[in-house]
Design a protein that fits this description.
The complex is a heterodimer of chains A (133) and B (295). With 133 residues, chain A is an alpha+beta fold. Chain A contains two helices and ten strands, in the order E-E-E-E-E-E-E-E-E-E-H-H. Chain A is globular and about 50 Å long. The chains are: A alpha+beta (133), B alpha/beta (295).
Amino acid sequence: MANGLTLEIVSPEELLLSEKVDMAIIPAVEGDIGALPGHAPMIVSLRPGVVRAQVNGASAHEFVVVGGFAEIMPDRCTVVATEAVPAENATAEWIGERVRAAEAAYARTAMTAEVEAREDALRQTQLAALRRS
Amino acid sequence: MPSLKSLRTRINSVKSTRKITQAMKMVAASKLKRAQAQAQAARPYAERMERMLGSLAASIAGRPDAPRLLVGTGRSERHLLIVMAADRGLCGAFNSSLVRFARSRIRTLLAEGKEVRIITVGRRARDLLRRDHGKLIVDSVTFIGKPRIGFADAQAIAGKVRDLLEQDAFDVCTLIYNRFKSVIVQVPMEQTLIPASIPAASEDSSGKDPAAIYEYEPSEEEILARLLPENLSVQIYRALLDSAAGEQGARMAAMDNATRNAGQMIAKLTLAYNRQRQANITKELIEIISGAEAV
């Protein structure tokens, strides 16, 4: 199957991308996965980070995702993100807003491992975006 | 016989009512467009989610340790109903037909000796159900003052449902909402959320990959544990958007009707006014002529 890979990025609010790419790099929970055409069927859980797409050896799209899932098939790769934005829109403010929202939620709930994990996750997003810029 | 003055006042008041209903119709039309676009935009996510869940759930559902969000508690004694209507009225039978549907469901369940709890969404649902079933309502949600429904709103409702499930407060969770069939047709319907209705996994829409054997990372269980709550939110989000679009559609139709009725009323009143005016003139003429003849 050399005829490319269709990368789709969807968030609850919209379909962000649906395009043929050569390779998609996905931030899975256990490390990044590079999906090429012909990849074995796979469902992975995502960690917050950046989904990258490569076309003709050059990086074509970058999306910041805040958790979610990805379904990899030989001819397509679907990223179902809880929240996703094009990387150029993921400003420090955008991330700050999320961190603040998470902190507010944190203040409401009792300290649980789950909440801690979510906070950690958000920090990681922030770091990922900062490293990029 | 109404006087000319009172007729004139009535015509004017009906005219201003028509102006209001016309404006409301326009507003509803533009809101409908937005709501439809939002519902459209949310569809791909729900579809992908369903596909993934379908392939996952099929392999897990049969196991005894399957998560509760997926299979429920295995009984159907206690029901949780989420009744979803609008926050505002003036949209025809949109709210009342939904609530009527919900009431009949509640009655049937109670008659069967089941326990019923209700979460209402939208002010109208709460107000209309409170009188008959006030004691059954455990929670109500409204979106008053919110210009737009976000995914976070759906997540909040899903969170409440999950909390109740964790407290072992119900066995079956059903969502009752108005499905958007077309701009003028909304159908009240129910959808079972827990136990989750699993889409047929083997029938992929493309038909290319029949029940593909997936690898999972991390384990199947862990992914399912994260996917299920998400799926619950998505289902609720979808219903919220459908209901919001339906509300605007219903309001548009109702206001269109009202505008037309007002037009008819104005025509009728104007006719009566003109007749009256003419009768008055004739009467005056007769008075003058007969006065002149008498001289």
